[in-house]
Design a protein that fits this description.
Elements: H1 3-22, H2 26-36, H3 51-66, H4 73-96, H5 104-111
InterPro entries: LisH
Main location: nucleus
Keywords: Nucleus, Transcription, Transcription regulation
Length: 112
């Protein structure tokens, strides 16, 4: 496992522990910290509900917006912007493709 993956795993563990503590799941948080050897250092992003919960809330809102379920206006705007960007990118790619000439049998038919 690379150093970056190891650090990412450890950071995820720290934020899972933070989430458990903020949900008042003390025994679970303590067991997770002991078994996973999770650092007891304070988290860098100290959100009231926990960074993991904040991140999940944003992810879920955007995910639900894609399925046309109940979602926020912000998520709907984000999805619309992403769709417009994808369409624009597709149009640019089509414009960059060289124009192919028509096969000779079609050109002959058009001349007659």
């Amino acid at each position: 496992m690379s150093q970056n993956n190891w650090e990412a795993d450890k950071m995820l563990d720290v934020y899972i522990h933070d989430y458990l503590v903020k949900r008042d799941l003390k025994a679970t948080a303590q067991a997770f910290q002991a078994e996973g050897k999770v650092s007891s250092d304070p988290v860098a992003i100290d959100a009231p509900g926990g960074f993991l919960f904040e991140w999940w809330s944003v992810f879920w809102d955007i995910f639900i917006a894609r399925t046309n379920e109940k979602h926020s206006e912000v998520a709907a705007s984000y999805i619309e912007t992403q769709l417009l960007k994808a369409r624009d990118q597709q149009q640019q790619q089509q414009q960059q493709q060289p124009q192919t000439s028509q096969p000779s049998h079609i050109q002959q038919q058009q001349q007659h």
